[in-house]
Amino acid sequence: DKGTYPFYMLKEVDEQPNVMRKLSQEYLSETGEPVIDQKLLDDMQAADRLYIIGAGTSYHAGLVGKRLFESLTQKPTEVHISSEFAYEQPILSKKPFFIFLSQSGETADSREVLVNVNSAGYKSLTLTNVQNSTLSREATYTLLLHAGPEIAVASTKAYTAQIALEAILAKALGECDNQIVAQNFDIRQQLGLVATGMQALVDEKGMIEKVAKESFMNTPNAFYIGRGLDWTVSLESALKLKEISYVQAEGFASGELKHGTIALIEEGTPVVGIITQERTAGLTRSNLQETMARGAKIITISTEKLSKPGDTIVLPDIDEHLTPLLSVVPAQLLAYYTSLNKGLDVDRPRNLAKSVTVE
Ligand code: M6R
Question: Which residues are in the SIS domain (predicted)?
């Protein structure tokens, strides 16, 4: 039931702070330590490489997961689009461990990979929102996202839940290996800050709607740019805009833009820069300047620490590992309000189904 909300998507965006709190309750002890099945951790620890598999938004959550696992556990981690992996399998390491990301647990492309993984006898884990879903039943282990039903076709709270759960898992695994970064990562405190930060963002809807109206309503195309983790959020942000508001959008590694794609920038083309990583903030800003010099209309999503006067949307500061959990929220809302103000069916965009059960 969507209650007083005009669309499920908005309700689901608003639920995200509570999903973060729920995941803390489900997977962290009173002292803030991860509570994860030891057998699962042993199997992951025994692996020499993690392979994350997903489609669409779940693939994008995997891109964030790769950075989390590599930083907190030092375990090499690859992320693959399931429909590609199924038919062009890369050379696997000696002891692979597979992590399937799927909100529905029913995506045929991902299931195809799991069938192959099972017949090769490899261990796997599914992170899903749906108990007893196909991917959950067929994987060795399951961790539930506890996000509550996600009805809107555009995935929102499943993305943030997947990332938060990957962070908890990475912390747990890193601690098994006495990794200092994992030991120092106060996941409980950080998820608390994330929940508060998300709440502040969803309380700023009026401002975000204004940006959507000014920048996205009449444009045929738009860009999201960033580096590293911010790039991965650019991909997800662009997908949201394409999917529900039919604006042709591209998420781009900001340094790569000048190697060709900048030719697409015209007077008024919206370019959203995501700036949450200290190491690359200055570089992304100068890439934004390059587009501005060619007439682009610049919008920024930056963390407070890295913000500059005149920035459009400023996020509260949190640990840099987790900034996707905040930076994606304004992008979800920008897509939502563009779709809404165009008079489109936000929850049921054309040509799409909630779960894609054909390959
Ligand atoms: O249920 P899944 O997470 O496996 O679904 C994967 C994609 O079909 C899904 O994330 C899709 O990209 C969303 N509609 C994007 O908002």
Answer: 40-179, 212-349
